[in-house]
């Protein structure tokens, strides 16, 4: 029994992996510059857009309380859910396209997890130093200096996380009012919860879990493999050129020594944020950040070797020794062209639909609680409710006419009605007509609702036609 249990231990231990802390080394190079460009771009957009004014409000505001989304000059109502569907379709096909062309390029350069991890690691390096210094600090016994450094790092992380949570909530609650509430400690329970929750998620994901999110929590890492093919650009190690590995002096001739270009310095492993060795082949943990390419190129430059031992390439290019031109020709294959075509068509349709969207919505509802009335003078009266939505931010004046029966008129003290931008109103209407002595039952009438811009005399009027049933007793 003891021998059986002993033999089972290795198998049981292999089911779970105890996390090994990764100390990514700082790296510079072309891809590092690109990555930081996206870090700055995404954060300028995220932190700055909430403060951008537009028509007396912030440019982007998802007002859940009033069920309206403001995106620059556009206002989206619940009836515009089709545009959310279009956004999801565009996002899905963009993901398919980017993955088919260049693997996990989104993960490596623009994913929020990557972006915030990069920012948090930048803070960590400024406070604790680069890889060797951080490793030494963690192994050192507890001291005042260690507590101060660790405390300063986590303090900066927490401040950034809380500001991130505040900005996130500022897209759903007007951010100027939210700031005043925070300063006066008067935020509501939901605002407080989401600021703390989003801040805690940022602090935990980017500060503590880091590569664990990419490796185990993100579903993209699990299904990305089915979206790759032999012509997908991925980060690869040129085994023919690099093997066998071996250390050597800068002046040594690798051919005379019978070794490849890889000097086995492990820089590619040290700079990897997920701690993998790209020389072992493509792995699902690779997020495509290209840090290993920059690190290896620096070593190749120091040794006087050609760059590209680790590079973006494809399986076909490596196996068939294709040059760059041939490789890129195969990247733009039918699958990629199909994704691109669908993406262009859906995007173009969305733009055209938005450009021709009518900013006025009208709904005519017959008041079923009120019976049709014969006034005794040949006039029959029906009561309606006219729901008007002024969906953009232009103030408009609305007039209503009706036709379809003899001597039909609209009687309402609330007409003409004036609506401010992004508002709606329910108007009671009485419609009177003289259908004739022998006309009974249900008749079709036609409402014509005309909206005229109040402040812009050059804007053309908008006319909406709606039909309704008129009951003759």
In short:
The chain is an alpha+beta fold. It has helices at 2-13, 30-49, 81-102, 105-109, 112-128, 131-139, 144-169, 175-183, 189-209, 211-217, 220-223, 239-242, 254-257, 267-270, 291-303, 315-320, 324-331, 334-355; strands spanning 53-54, 57-58, 60-63, 68-71, 74-76, 234-237, 310-313, 360-366, 373-374, 380-390, 396-403, 409-411, 417-419, 423-433, 441-453, 462-472.
What does this structure look like?
- Strand 1 (53-54) and strand 2 (57-58) form a beta hairpin.
- The protein is 45% helix and 19% strand.
- It is of the alpha+beta class.
- The strands form five sheets. Strands 8, 9, 10, 12 and 14 form a five-stranded antiparallel β-sheet that branches.
- The model is unreliable at 1-11 (pLDDT under 50).
- The protein contains 18 helices and 16 strands.
- It folds into three domains: 30-226, no CATH class; 233-314, no CATH class; 360-472, Sandwich (Immunoglobulin-like), CATH 2.60.40.10.
- It has helices at 2-13, 30-49, 81-102, 105-109, 112-128, 131-139, 144-169, 175-183, 189-209, 211-217, 220-223, 239-242, 254-257, 267-270, 291-303, 315-320, 324-331, 334-355, and strands at residues 53-54, 57-58, 60-63, 68-71, 74-76, 234-237, 310-313, 360-366, 373-374, 380-390, 396-403, 409-411, 417-419, 423-433, 441-453, 462-472.
- Distance N terminus to C terminus? 94 Å
Tell me the quaternary state.
single chain
* Spatial extent as radius of gyration: 33 Å
Unreliable stretches covering 5 or more consecutive residues? 1-11
């Amino acid at each position: 029994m003891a021998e059986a249990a002993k033999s089972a231990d290795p198998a049981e231990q292999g089911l779970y992996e105890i996390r090994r802390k990764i100390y990514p080394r700082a790296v510079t190079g072309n891809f590092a510059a690109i990555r930081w460009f996206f870090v700055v771009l995404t954060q300028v957009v995220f932190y700055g857009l909430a403060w951008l004014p537009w028509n007396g409000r912030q440019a982007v505001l998802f007002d859940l309380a009033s069920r309206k989304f403001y995106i620059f000059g556009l206002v989206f109502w619940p009836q515009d859910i089709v545009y959310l569907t279009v956004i999801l379709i565009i996002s899905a096909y963009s993901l398919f396209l980017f993955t088919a062309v260049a693997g996990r390029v989104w993960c490596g350069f623009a994913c929020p997890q990557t972006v915030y991890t990069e920012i948090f690691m930048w803070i960590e390096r400024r406070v604790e130093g680069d890889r060797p210094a951080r490793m030494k600090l963690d192994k050192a016994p507890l001291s005042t200096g260690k507590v101060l450094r660790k405390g300063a790092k986590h303090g900066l992380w927490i401040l950034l996380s809380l500001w991130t949570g505040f900005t996130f909530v500022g897209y759903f609650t007007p951010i100027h009012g939210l700031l005043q509430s925070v300063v006066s400690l008067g935020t509501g329970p939901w605002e407080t919860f989401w600021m703390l929750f989003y801040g805690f998620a940022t602090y935990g994901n980017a500060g503590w879990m880091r590569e664990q999110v990419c490796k185990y929590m993100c579903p993209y890492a699990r299904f990305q493999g089915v979206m790759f093919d032999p012509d997908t650009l991925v980060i690869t190690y040129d085994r023919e050129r690099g093997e066998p590995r071996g250390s050597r002096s800068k002046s040594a001739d690798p051919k005379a020594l019978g070794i490849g270009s890889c000097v086995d310095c492990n820089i590619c492993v040290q700079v990897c944020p997920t701690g993998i060795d790209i020389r072992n082949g493509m792995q699902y943990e690779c997020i495509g950040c290209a840090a290993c390419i920059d690190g290896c190129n620096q070593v190749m430059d120091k040794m006087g070797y050609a760059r590209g031992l680790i590079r973006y390439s494809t399986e076909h290019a490596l196996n068939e020794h294709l040059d760059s031109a041939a490789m890129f020709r195969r990247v733009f294959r039918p699958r990629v062209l199909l994704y691109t075509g669908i993406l262009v068509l859906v995007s173009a349709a969305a733009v055209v639909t938005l450009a021709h969207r009518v900013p006025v919505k009208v709904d005519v509802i017959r008041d079923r609680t009120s019976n049709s009335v014969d006034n005794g003078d040949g006039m029959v009266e029906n009561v309606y409710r006219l729901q008007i939505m002024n969906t953009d931010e232009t103030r408009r004046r609305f007039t209503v006419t009706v036709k379809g029966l003899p001597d039909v008129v609209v009687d309402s003290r609330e007409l003409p009605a004036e609506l401010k931008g992004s508002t709606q109103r329910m108007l009671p209407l009485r419609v009177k007509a003289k259908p004739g002595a022998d006309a009974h039952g249900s008749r079709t009438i036609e409402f014509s609702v005309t909206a005229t811009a109040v402040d812009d005399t050059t804007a053309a009027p908008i006319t909406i036609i709606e039909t309704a049933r008129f009951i003759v007793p």
